[in-house]
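4.2 Preliminary Data

To establish feasibility before requesting continued support, the project team ran the inverse folding procedure on a target of 107 residues. The structure was first converted into the token representation described in Section 3, and no sequence information of any kind was made available to the design step. The complete token record follows.
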């Protein structure tokens, strides 16, 4: 709970931070288990989406687990591709093709 409350205090957007602090009073974090906390985060996200006129997400535990797996796989994929991209950039730099790097950066 302390982590979430601290996050609300230090949230970069002042308006969002105040709104989150009010929401925490009305809907305190549920931290008795990973599942309870995951559902609470999803519900908090949905409350913000509702205010912004965006669609809500299902907060069923099995769906949250699948979404978490997809996020983790995406992060691993991006890290692997960044490593490959970095190797390509270093090779291009060593060959003195600076303009190629500028093109790759802006594409």
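Position-by-position output of the design step:
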């Amino acid at each position: 709970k302390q982590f979430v409350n601290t996050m609300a205090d230090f949230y970069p957007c002042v308006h969002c931070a105040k709104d989150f602090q009010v929401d925490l009073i009305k809907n305190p974090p549920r931290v008795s288990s990973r599942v309870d906390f995951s559902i609470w985060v999803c519900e908090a996200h949905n409350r913000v989406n509702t205010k912004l006129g965006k669609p809500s997400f299902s907060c069923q535990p099995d769906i949250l687990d699948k979404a978490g797996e997809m996020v983790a796989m995406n992060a691993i994929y991006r890290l692997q591709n960044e490593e490959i991209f970095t190797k390509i950039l270093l090779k291009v730099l060593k060959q003195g093709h600076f303009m190629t790097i500028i093109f790759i950066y802006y594409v």
